[in-house]
Specification:
By secondary structure, the chain is α/β, with parallel strands linked by helices. The protein contains 6 helices and 11 strands.
Amino acid sequence: MLSDTDLGTIEFVRNARSKHIRVRILSSGLRVTLPTKATENDALKFINSIRTKLIQKQEKLEKGLQKRNIIIDESSKLQTLTFVVEAKSTNRKNIYFALKNSTLNIEYPVGTDCLTIETQQYFWNGISYFLRKEAKRLLPSRSKQLADKHGLFFSNVKIQSSKSRWGSCSREKNINLSLYLMLLPIHLIDYVILHELCHTKEMNHGDKFWRWMDKVTDAKSKELRSELKKYHMPN
């Protein structure tokens, strides 16, 4: 493993099945796969031959991650549907979470590096716990309200931790909603719930389905769908 001023940490791994030197670009460095007969010097010569291109791709990757990731630290103010998240360093010896007066306070020891994957994961584990509690408290009843309003029927609502989709609906009319819906504004939460409710009528995304969506959203389904695409779940 080497450290490069421009590219970060360069990790070398060997793979007997590889026929060529392969470089995987990471935000923090490179992972280089070496075939049996290749040396690290061979890899470095190859890296130097495409250094400018690697740096450009790494910068592009970093910008993409910054855009998608929701970083929690002392400067962030994450607003959820029912509470705001505030993080601050204290003299505590461990990381502490407390939800009070619509604020989720995260206190962490002075000197903690908030930007490590481990720390961010710990923060999000705690945040997700409270998001789930709030989602269970609010989303099933909201689903019932919207279903009754539009004359739709569902069997059950479950809150899940999905990070791949906001919601889903089974043929048995069971609706699954991601706890991360609580990171959306209320009109987009309603849009997702209505989307799944319309699947109780049409299980596909054909013309009939979108006619239902336009009916329950006052012909704003396309507009709301485009707005939803601007939001991402935390990685």
